[in-house]
Design a protein that fits this description.
By secondary structure, the chain is of the alpha+beta class. The chain is built from 20 helices and 21 strands.
Amino acid sequence: MFDIEEELKKLPAKPGVYLMHDKKDAIIYVGKAISLKNRVRQYFQSSRRVSPKIQQMISHIDHFEYIITDSEVEALVLENNLIKEYMPKYNTMLKDDKTYPFIRATVYEEYPRLIYCREQKRDKSKYFGPFTNQGTAKDALEMARKIYHVRTCNRVLPRDRGKERPCLNYHIKQCDAPCQGYISKEEYRENFNRALKLLEGDYHEVIQILQEKMESASEKLEFEEAAGYRDLIESVKKVEIRQKITDFGGVDRDIIAVAATNQEAVVQVFFVREGKLIGRDHFHLNGIEGDTNDEILQSFVKQFYAGTPFIPREVMLEYEIQDARLIEEWLGQRRGSKVSILVPKKGQKERLMELAHKNAALVLTQDSEKIRREEERTAGAMAQICGWLGIEEAVRIESYDISNINGFQSVGSMVVFEKGKPKKSDYRKFRIQTVQGPDDYASMEEVLTRRFRHGLKERREMESKEWNEELGSFTRFPDLIMMDGGKGQVHIAEQVLENMGLTIPVCGMVKDDRHRTRGLFFQERELPIEINSEGFRLMTRIQDEVHRFAIEYHRSLRSKAQVKSILDDIPGIGETRRKALMRHFKSLEKIREASVEELLEAESMNERAAQSVYEFFRNKRF
């Protein structure tokens, strides 16, 4: 038995991370402290005033644990990692998990390259970015390669010079083939340095060079080449427009503002690189109930910079945050040089902060309506179904279907919906093992028995080993089972659950004579439903999904069985030749129609095997 009062006395006055658990042992909150003893005790002091969210969290604490660290910075890093791993209910969570593209210049190579990547490593390369738009990064990379003929191959030069023929880029005049020695190292490096200038934003020189080449080609009546230069000029101008010059003296800086309601928040980030505003992005946060704007910003900064490879020299925030000094130290360690957290008060920086806030507020307004509609379609629809059935809540729904054609190789499918959305990682397939012929009731009984027997076995194993891992697709039981059918299917499911000592509500999605859903069968009576409601639409999505999943599985098994059962009956045709025939001819029909000479063209086939296949299909009726 965990005695909170006794455990509080044992807390050390050292920096570290604490984890709050509820009665089900789920981690509901993760925090850091410069002194675990002082910080954790504060949660259990009745005189301390806290936000409603934290008060609710405290009411659910059953026990806690803690991890001691050597410093507060280490505690900050560990806190971020644990929040990302466990996603506690009462922590403010960054919902977006975005990565941004970079262009990597391998300046240390004798014949350097430009490479698109999503990770900035500590190597000798020079990196451009991050780009907030994948298309912008690829456009810039393509322009640099086309204009300055930067190589794209992975050959190690000059070691591999002349070992292979030049690639297609040489023939379409987009590479000068340094792999063949057609351009000197000095000339290639000069072109490469110009490409770097382009990536740094020096568009004037590029446009001037392309203009001259376009005019020269036009004078020579080489109109197709001139048109190519014209298109390149237009591409350069488009990228130039996207990179707005700002008066920041070449500093790398992120400008971060927030807009929030009681339920949700949007953080807007402007990315300034080398004095240029290269783009912006927004991020959603949830679990913010009762949090102030500075608390939301602090949570965002810690989670965002824990996951992004690039750390700017300055981070400008709309509000002062409590852990600014600590976060500066942490970011400085990650960057390898000093990082400053600032709150602008006047001038152009303050005006940009206002612009960032307006963008955040706009996104919040627009997305609130979108989120509301999505809530109605998913969680709202689920609540509506629960209302029809008279049950309190159902987060997880499971639905089952049986598929067979004239009893051939019956299969079962299980689909899972959580909060009104499909959870495809928990879908499962069943090949019927004990039932012969088209008996859907017996097949469904087998599927449900196997599903819940497996789940109970996993639960017993978890209890005996004291596992604390997240429950898997079988170990987690549904709050509601929705059978694709009426009374018969519901009774089968209820009987299986009763035999296993489980109490889970089961309803059937009843169809009319035209195979359209008309109601729900629950507790021995059919309940009418509103056919124009979101609940009805969710039911049809569940039905369609469980049908699709079962039929696709059955189709794949039929296809494999057909190929195997027919070709494996042919003397001299084993697994190797069967696969070779299917690779070569693609279908059973083409194998059946092939001549002996055509069959010999398939890999591994000899004259005897080809003759055997040919005669087999001529003597067999289909």
